[in-house]
Amino acid sequence: MASLRLDIVTPDRLVLSREVDYVGAPGLEGEFGVLPGHVPLLAALTTGRLFYKADGRTNWVFVSGGFAEVAGGKVTILAESAEEAQSIDFERAEKARKRAKERIDSHRAEIDLHRALQSLARADVRLSLRGR
Amino acid sequence: MASLKDVRLKIAGVRKTRQITKAMYMVASAKLRNAQQRIERFRPYADKFSEMLVSLRGTDGDAVHPLLAERPETAGVGIVVAASDRGLCGSFNAGIISAALRFARENTSAGRKVRFYCLGRKCCDAVRTRGGETALAVIGRMNAVDFALASEVGIVVMNDFLSGQVDEVHMFYGEFISLARQQPAGFRLLPAGGGTSESERAGAAEDFIYEPAAGTLLNELLPRYVKARVYRGLLDTAAGENAARMQAMDNATRNCDEMADALTLLFNKTRQAGITNELIDIVGGVEALNG
């Protein structure tokens, strides 16, 4: 079976680079899956959970603000932030969630609601990966 | 001639200064290593990003994105200046600032309005004293640049560009070439077009599926591209600043060594002169008694 290489890159580092069997990514217009031999694809991702299957196991990765490029047996994810489930700082996510909630509930004019909602969404996704 | 005590004090002072410059040298070299690593780690992202952009632009030739569109008339120019928060790094900041100010003068004399976006205390001060219009001043964050900062700056600049406050945005920063060479550099940040050549376009002929459609995708991709370029400028400035500081502090340490040597010589001479004088007195006294 043809192989599939997954690279996840953020501005700060190369998060992940390995051979995988399957990638499921949170596309802007819905989740999509990539198997070896997929046609070339360029897709925008939403803040969400990406997973890949390798060695019979499913692994989860948090991604936010990203793009996926599938070409020539390679899947490249470019994201503003990306963390593997086991390296997520859940305490921080918990705090971020609380802060975002307070900001949204405060209804003050100087609060950037859009940003607060985004940060709430990020925290929720991160927390949903607890124990994965 | 200076008294023995004065010279001793001076030597002690110079040695203390030397300790400080030496310590600053070491701090700067540690920070430089850090900054270089960050540049290294950023490279795969940046490279991949331009690749994606090129492959996208090849397809969507006709619809020009607002961030790419050249404006027929340029009435306002935005200048992003990235310098450091702290001095003691030779002419590093002065070089960047003067390059930016020269560019600003050229534009004002051509009748364009200039807005500054200042990153780092040094250039905030410089622009303020010259009465330039500052749309954004970031102070105290150049010590540890991160993508969040680049992102903030990018958003402000893009908003001004899209709302028509400025028709072009240029960025000036300190390019890090090597440990011994840093130089002020500038590039046009917005409109973001013009970077791809025809040959690159031809190479991107692969048939991609776009999801969402290419135009929408460009909408998502371009703002990030702008942020990535700002980030690159910030990283270079951070590395350049520390390289420049290393050089400056190395020079200062060497000067301290030289000065301490010269003062030690003076100290020995002064001490010897004192001894000689006392000997002359004693010998003179003995001679007088004998006579």
Structural commentary:
The complex is a heterodimer of chains A (132) and B (291). With 132 residues, chain A is α+β, with helices and mostly antiparallel strands. Chain A folds into two domains: 4-86, F0F1 ATP synthase delta/epsilon subunit, N-terminal (ATP Synthase, domain 1, Sandwich), CATH 2.60.15; 89-128, Single alpha-helices involved in coiled-coils or other helix-helix interfaces (Up-down Bundle), CATH 1.20.5. Chain A contains two helices and eight strands. Chain B is an alpha/beta fold. Chain B folds into two domains: 4-26 and 249-290, ATP synthase, gamma subunit, helix hairpin domain (Helix Hairpins, Orthogonal Bundle); 27-247, Pyruvate Kinase, Chain: A, domain 1 (3-Layer(aba) Sandwich), CATH 3.40.1380.10. In chain B, α1 runs antiparallel to α6 (214-290) and α4 (147-162) packs across α6 (214-290). The longest helix of chain B has 77 residues, at 214-290. Chain B is elongated. The two termini of chain B are 33 Å apart. The model of chain B is unreliable at 196-205 (pLDDT under 50). The chains are: A alpha+beta (132), B alpha/beta (291). The A-B interface holds A 7, 9-14, 27-29, 32, 39-44, 65, 67, 69, 71, 76, 78, 80 and B 38, 41-42, 44-45, 48-49, 51-52, 55-56, 146-147, 150-151, 206-212, 216-217, 220-221, 224, 228, 231.
Measured on Cα atoms, how large is the radius of gyration of chain B? 29 Å
The number of domains of chain B is: 2
Number of helices of chain A: 2
Beta-strand content of chain B: 15-25%
Helices and strands of chain A: which structural class? alpha+beta
Q: Uncertain runs of chain A with pLDDT below 50, 5 residues or more?
A: none
Biggest interface, CB < 8 A: A-B, 24 and 29 residues
Question: Judging from the principal axes of the Cα atoms, what is the shape of chain A?
Answer: elongated
**Overall pLDDT of chain A, averaged?**
88
The CATH superfamily of the largest domain in chain A is identified as F0F1 ATP synthase delta/epsilon subunit, N-terminal
- The secondary-structure element order of chain B is HEHEHEHEEHEH
Topology, number of strands of chain A:
8
| Helix content, binned percent of chain A | 25-40%
- Largest beta sheet: strand ordering of chain B: 3-2-1-4-5
The protein's oligomeric status is: heterodimer
Helix content of chain B: 55-70%
CATH architecture annotation of the largest domain in chain A: Sandwich
CATH topology of the largest domain in chain A: ATP Synthase, domain 1
Instruction: Return residue spans of chain B where pLDDT drops below 50 for at least 5 consecutive residues.
Output: 196-205
Order of helices and strands of chain A: EEEEEEEEHH
CATH class group of the largest domain in chain A? Mainly Beta
